[in-house]
Amino acid sequence: MKQRVTVLGSTGSIGTNTLDVMARHPDRFEVFALTAATRVDLMLQQCVQFKPRFAVMASAPHGRELAQKIKANGLAIEVLSGPDAIKLIASHELTDTVMAAIVGAAGLASCLAAARAGKRLLLANKEALVVGGDVFMRAVREGGATLLPIDSEHSAIFQSLPEDPASWPQRVEKIILTSSGGPFRTREPATLAGVTPDEACAHPNWVMGRKISVDSATMMNKALEVIEARYLFDMPAQQIEVVIHPQSVIHSMVQYRDASIVAQLGTPDMRVPIAYGLAWPERIASGAQALDFRTLSGMTFESFETQGHRDRFPGLQLAWEALRAPAGACATLNAANEVAVAAFLDKRIRFDQIHHINLETLQAVTTSVPQTLDDLLALDARARAAAQRVVARMET
Ligand SMILES: NC(=O)C1=CN([C@@H]2O[C@H](COP(=O)(O)OP(=O)(O)OC[C@H]3O[C@@H](n4cnc5c(N)ncnc54)[C@H](OP(=O)(O)O)[C@@H]3O)[C@@H](O)[C@H]2O)C=CC1
Ligand SMILES: CC(=O)[C@@H](O)[C@H](O)COP(=O)(O)O
Ligand SMILES: [Mn+2]
Fold this sequence. Notes:
This protein is α/β, with parallel strands linked by helices. It folds into two domains: 3-150, 3-Layer(aba) Sandwich (Rossmann fold); 156-268 and 296-394, Orthogonal Bundle (Rna Polymerase Sigma Factor, Chain: A), CATH 1.10.1740. Helices cover 46% and strands 15% of the residues. The protein contains 17 helices and eleven strands. Helix 1 (13-23) crosses helix 12 (271-279) and helix 10 (210-218) crosses helix 15. The chain is globular and about 60 Å long. The protein starts with a strand and ends with a helix. The model has no long low-confidence stretch (mean pLDDT 97). The protein binds NADPH dihydro-nicotinamide-adenine-dinucleotide phosphate (NDP), 1-deoxy-D-xylulose-5-phosphate and manganese (II) ion (MN). Residues 9-15, 36-39, 58, 101-103, 106, 124-127, 151, 206, 208-209, 211-212, 270 line the site of NADPH dihydro-nicotinamide-adenine-dinucleotide phosphate. Residues 265-385 form the DXP reductoisomerase C-terminal domain. It catalyses: 2-C-methyl-D-erythritol 4-phosphate + NADP(+) = 1-deoxy-D-xylulose 5-phosphate + NADPH + H(+).
């Protein structure tokens, strides 16, 4: 029987790559539902090609626009709108697999719904786990969901770990996350105040959405990934390390107690971890090119402690600081960062101010240990309001 897949965030970079992989295997996969926020015309094209049972837009006006176009094209697809509709199809009894590819904490509620409904949950939406933390992982356990990482580093780690999670604490010395260093790896820290959103989004190796691209440029992406690894693999924060590897060939590594290191390598193409998640434990064609070692010019590594990286990327350290604080600190950090990145992309603040907003918000918001989705959403809202106040002060 075919896997019936729901793609949350189907119009984004991960969403379109997911549909690309699925289209290569019509015998294995069918699209059950698609969701998007603003790109109605792309959603319509996807509906024409994949004929899902449901198409969901995040807001009612976009839902109405899509419904008109679906009707005009004579398609028999049910159009819904709003966050509750996204939750509904993420947990629908007729879907087996949910690709979580909404950007930001906006994806948290649908991830939790899929987890509680026991779905095979393919997690690209790292912010949902950073915000959800233990609440998220509890929902996965209690719902009996299968959680598979899509983030390239976490897919690499998952592929490099032994099959039995019970053996990880005894066997694993540490996790080594690789980071490209982004577009500003060699840039003088003092000049970062003047960079534009387009410069920040010009990632040297990966083509991605604008929010994650800015995160790569500040290395907040790696901070979020440290927190993501902490929860996904139940790994103490002090056993997670970051090394700068500008070529993005090694996607991450696991170091074992005997000093052996196991890594996953490949060209920088998200269709590889997506195909792995869709087919796991099997392997299927992804459409990506394999590495050609005869033409690979080299692999290099830089310590975070050298070449001014600490000054260039002050945000990375916040991951370990947030993980040392009460659990809500990770949600606060994420909310601040989402607000700061949006303000930078809107040209309301400078690039170097992103870190100051994150730091100040972390200091301003007192955190507790959230127990429920409502607790998390309330904390997220409080942290966003605090971050907006810092942005407003910086704008003037
Ligand atoms: N891109 C990549 O290579 C990687 C991405 N990730 C993670 O995957 C997630 C998606 O990233 P990416 O694909 O780059 O992002 P994009 O910005 O390209 O896509 C985001 C998707 O989410 C939808 N969306 C945005 N806001 C909302 C909302 N409030 N409610 C519902 N849907 C919404 C968008 O709809 P619309 O476009 O219609 O407005 C779009 O479909 C992020 O968490 C990112 O960190 C992780 C590893 C690699
Ligand atoms: C493709 C992917 O998983 C991104 O998170 C990517 O890793 C970004 O690269 P850097 O954050 O290492 O620059
Ligand atoms: Mn990543």
